[in-house]
């Protein structure tokens, strides 16, 4: 059954459970009987969790600025909300793994990109889950796909900061109202406070009340989950001092992950990239770079692979563990901070 580019299909498989007689099939292509102990819709609702399998990609599922995106992920989340359960996404390496896990009952459904040219994606419901399949077909309507695409585009088009040609300064020798905080806490990780200031400008243009569409808050745009990890109370995320102090601790943690890179400037570039795009994506790019004979400790040799992680042949490479990445934004993030830092070094002592 085709509905505006999405196929919702029942996955037929031999289930290792006892069959139960049905008066008639719920959907025309369902030929097998519903197993008696199959984890179908009632059990899913009781457990409070819908488990979905997918392969990372721009239209299926990816992490962006701490927010999960992908039009099919967004549809799956809406369906889970409709059922009143939470959605758990589990990434697979390939379609063979997806189908094998569906057949053995490891998950409830899957959504896949089946045709790279037409961007057609297929949904599969796990073996024997007739009631779930019926509920999915009853819930879905063709307008949902275009609505999800529009919502994602609107989110991605929103600017996190207001870009300006040159870095603003309050007065000669003063970058911002928060220079004292940058100076106070930057020494804990041995960074030039002006580099922290350049990063802060890129994150929020020195607005302590800034909040992104993804939920990041404060001068250094800390995500709620990151605040929890750092022990920063959520009600203090916009407090300038607490926000800056927590962000610098995070920079220190990230720097520790790159302590094998001895050149300080190179190490800082990788830290900044990880702060923006995620440590694991940056490490994926390093693995690809090293595989192709480049120095994975030099940013300019890894940067092209940050960009390539938006291309299917790279984000589905066997070396890549964390999938698709909007790498152009991370590369631009590091570039802009470095450019602004050079301006600050010339203007502020």
Shape verdict: globular
Placed side by side, the strands forming the largest sheet appear as: 1-2-10-9-5-8
Structural class: alpha/beta
Calculate Rg over CA atoms: 24 Å
Content of β-strand = 5-15%
Helix and strand string, N-terminal first? EEEEHEEEHEHEEHHHHHHHHHHH
Q: How many runs of DSSP E, i.e. beta strands?
A: 10
Explain what this protein looks like in three dimensions:
With 349 residues, the protein is of the alpha/beta class. It is built from 14 helices and 10 strands. The protein has a 6-stranded mixed β-sheet with strand order 1-2-10-9-5-8, with helices on both faces. A two-stranded antiparallel sheet has the order 3-4. It has a two-stranded antiparallel sheet with strand order 6-7. Mean pLDDT is 84; it is low at 1-36 and 161-166.
Describe the SSE topology.
Layout: E1 2-3, E2 6-10, E3 19-20, E4 34-35, H1 41-47, E5 49-54, E6 62-64, E7 67-69, H2 71-83, E8 86-91, H3 95-103, E9 109-115, E10 120-125, H4 130-139, H5 143-157, H6 179-186, H7 193-204, H8 224-230, H9 240-257, H10 264-277, H11 279-291, H12 299-308, H13 312-315, H14 327-347
Parallel strand pairs: 2-10, 5-8, 5-9
Antiparallel strand pairs: 1-2, 3-4, 6-7, 9-10
Summarize the structure.
By secondary structure, the protein is α/β, with parallel strands linked by helices. The protein has helices spanning 41-47, 71-83, 95-103, 130-139, 143-157, 179-186, 193-204, 224-230, 240-257, 264-277, 279-291, 299-308, 312-315, 327-347, and strands at residues 2-3, 6-10, 19-20, 34-35, 49-54, 62-64, 67-69, 86-91, 109-115, 120-125. The protein has 14 helices and ten strands.
């Amino acid at each position: 059954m085709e509905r505006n580019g999405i196929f919702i299909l029942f996955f037929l498989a031999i289930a290792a459970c006892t069959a139960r007689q049905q008066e008639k099939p719920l959907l025309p292509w369902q030929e097998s009987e519903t197993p008696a102990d199959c984890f179908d819709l009632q059990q899913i609702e009781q457990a409070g969790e819908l488990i979905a399998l997918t392969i990372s990609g721009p239209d299926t599922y990816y992490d962006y600025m701490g927010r999960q995106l992908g039009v099919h992920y967004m549809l799956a989340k809406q369906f889970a909300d409709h059922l009143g359960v939470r959605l758990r996404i589990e990434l697979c390496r390939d379609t063979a793994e997806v189908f094998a896990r569906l057949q053995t009952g490891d998950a409830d459904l899957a959504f896949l990109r089946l045709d790279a040219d037409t961007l057609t994606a297929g949904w599969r419901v796990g073996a024997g889950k007739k009631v779930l399949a019926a509920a999915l077909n009853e819930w879905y309507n063709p307008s949902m796909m275009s609505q999800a695409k529009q919502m994602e585009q609107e989110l991605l088009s929103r600017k996190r900061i207001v870009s300006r040609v040159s870095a603003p300064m309050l007065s000669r020798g003063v970058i911002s109202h928060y220079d004292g905080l940058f100076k106070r806490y930057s020494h804990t990780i041995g960074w030039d406070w002006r580099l922290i200031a350049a990063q802060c400008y890129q994150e929020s243009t020195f607005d302590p009340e800034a909040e992104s569409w993804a939920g990041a808050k404060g001068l250094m745009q800390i995500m709620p989950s990151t605040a929890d990890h750092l022990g920063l109370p959520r009600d203090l995320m916009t407090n300038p001092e607490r926000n800056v102090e927590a962000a610098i601790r995070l920079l220190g943690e990230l720097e520790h992950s790159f302590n094998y890179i001895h050149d300080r400037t190179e190490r800082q570039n990788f830290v900044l990239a990880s702060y923006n795009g995620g440590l694991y994506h940056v490490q994926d790019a390093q693995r690809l770079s090293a595989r192709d004979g480049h120095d994975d400790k030099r940013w300019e040799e890894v940067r092209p692979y940050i960009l390539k992680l938006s291309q299917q042949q790279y984000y589905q490479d066997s070396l890549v563990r964390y999938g698709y990445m909007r790498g152009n934004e991370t590369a631009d993030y590091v570039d802009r901070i470095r450019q602004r830092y050079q301006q600050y070094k010339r203007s502020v002592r």
